[in-house]
């Protein structure tokens, strides 16, 4: 009985630490978003920064899937991946919208503060679309379209690869401990 209690306590702590870790990562991303200099001109370097930020999201998710596959606690790793990946993706788009709105006065139906940028990004990602803020300029519409497509792909990636990696890792753990250890050693 005491062994079961210790196992539940350990799992409870691990879940709490994972949630705390994800909340801290999200908090740091939001802090960086509110402190970042987003008053830059719309030029090629801004476009490259946007593309690099999207590439960073892809790399974070790729590294996360690999970490899930190697983990002794794949479900917690998946939670951590989602807890970092989605806020990262949302802050990338919110930053881009605020930058565009700062350089093109009529890019959206109203001026965007940083809070408005996050709000608009989340409503687009969640496909709620209240209609209070809408893209007006061609650039803003293209960026919103890109966010919609990337959002669909992100949800698909999470469903397919992150959850698939959890299933593979859990199945590996069900194998004899010696075989599981050999599998971890063989992973590249």
Description:
By secondary structure, this protein is an all-alpha fold. It has one domain: Helix Hairpins, CATH 1.10.287. Helix content is 80%, strand content 0%. The chain has six helices and no strands. It has helices at residues 2-35, 44-70, 74-103, 114-125, 138-174, 177-186. Helix 2 (44-70) runs antiparallel to helix 3 and helix 2 packs parallel to helix 5 (138-174). The longest helix has 37 residues, at 138-174. The radius of gyration is 20 Å and the shape is elongated. The protein starts with a helix and ends with a helix. The model has no long low-confidence stretch (mean pLDDT 87).
Short description:
The chain has about 190 residues and is mainly α.
Order of H and E elements: HHHHHH
Q: Uncertain segments of ≥5 residues (pLDDT<50)?
A: none
Q: Mind summarizing the main beta sheet?
A: none
What general outline do the C-alpha atoms trace?
elongated
Distance between the ends: 39 Å
CATH hierarchy: architecture: Orthogonal Bundle
Question: Counting H and I runs of at least 4 residues, what is the number of helices?
Answer: 6
- The CATH topology is given as Helix Hairpins
Helix residue percentage:
over 70%
Any key phrases for this structure?
6 helices, elongated, mainly alpha, 188 residues, 80% helix, Helix Hairpins, single chain
